[in-house]
Amino acid sequence: MSNENNSPQGNTGDIVNWPMLKVVYRTDPECISALLPPGIQPGADPHVNITIYNFPVPDEPEYGIVTTINADYEGVSGEYTLGYGIDQESAIFISQETNGQPKYPCTTEYYRLGPMVSARCIHQGYTFVEFKGMSKGPVDPLPEFDQHEWWIKSSRAVSVGGPASGFDFPPHVVHVQSRYGTAWREEVEGELLLRDSPWDPLTTLLPMREQVSAHLWWPIFLDRKITLAGPLDPDGFLPFADTISGSRYPGTSGGPKRT
Questions:
Q1: Which domains does the chain have, with CATH numbers?
Q2: Is 221 exposed, middle or buried (0-12, 13-18, 19+ CB in 10 A)?
Q3: Cβ-based burial of 158 (10 A; exposed 0-12, middle 13-18, buried ≥19)
Q4: Secondary structure of residue 234 in the 3-state scheme
Q5: How far apart are CA 40 and CA 79, in angstroms?
Q6: d(CA 18, CA 56)
Q7: What's the CA gap between 49 and 68, in Å, rounded?
Q8: How many CB atoms lie within 10 A of CB 10?
Q9: N or C: which end of the chain has fewer CB within 10 A?
Q10: Residue 111 to residues 119, 123, 141, 188, 206: CA-CA distances in angstroms?
């Protein structure tokens, strides 16, 4: 059911029609390069892509934040995923083990009231992302498009009494190819704020130089395939194997607990 402006509607309180809040900002090219393991190249634009959502997974609300950076693999332009911060613990470990999806626990507050849009994401007591804005109304929908997302699946070698050396399952790129349409899209005028956090170090590893865009997006899910795309060099990837929580942010011996 649609209203007179054809914006998505539905049963009162039904979360299926919640839009995704998508914000893109520009960072320094060298910051993108530093987070990409050998075998994955920086994309044409040094962009960080933030998606905040509430969607039923599989049949109950999942609030989350997805952080990706533009990156190419074997000549295909896409996005390297640094983390899915979600509030459903049951989905975290199975997603990591099965598909290499970098999920970790996070609390997200996200809502709109009339034209006002508000979001806040908290991990281990640190608020690391905030957004406040106002919808400026509908804009032309996007044509159907394919999105390519890169995850990493690997398993560190079993060890006793010391750090692991190598892998029981060496690192492989996981290719997530999704096809989308657009049911509705609204431009949002607002400001993305990044807060200091040792758990989600956006301010230090991916500082914002310019906010590029912000919009609400009601996607049409047309197709999704998740496949192993190819191996990465194990020795080259090993420095990237220590990560924070379940994300792809690099862990350090003096920083937050590592996986």
A1: 15-143+182-220 (2.40.400.10)
A2: exposed
A3: exposed
A4: helix
A5: 10
A6: 10
A7: 5
A8: 12
A9: N
A10: 7, 18, 22, 13, 26
Which amino acid belongs to residue 158? V
Helix residue ranges per DSSP H, 10-68: 29-35
The counts of H helices and E strands in the chain are 4, 12
Report pLDDT digits (tens) over 125-181: 999 999 999 999 999 888 999 999 999 999 998 876 555 578 999 999 999 999 999
CB 9 within 8 A of CB 17: yes
Taking the CA of residue 4 as centre, how many other CA atoms within 13 Å lie in the half-sphere pointing to its CB? 0
Q: Alpha-carbon distance 201 to 1, whole Å?
A: 42
How are beta strands 103-105 and 76-86 bridged, if at all? parallel
- Is pTM beyond 0.70 here? yes
Q: How many residues does the chain have?
A: 259
> In this structure, what token pair is assigned to residue 248?
């792809």
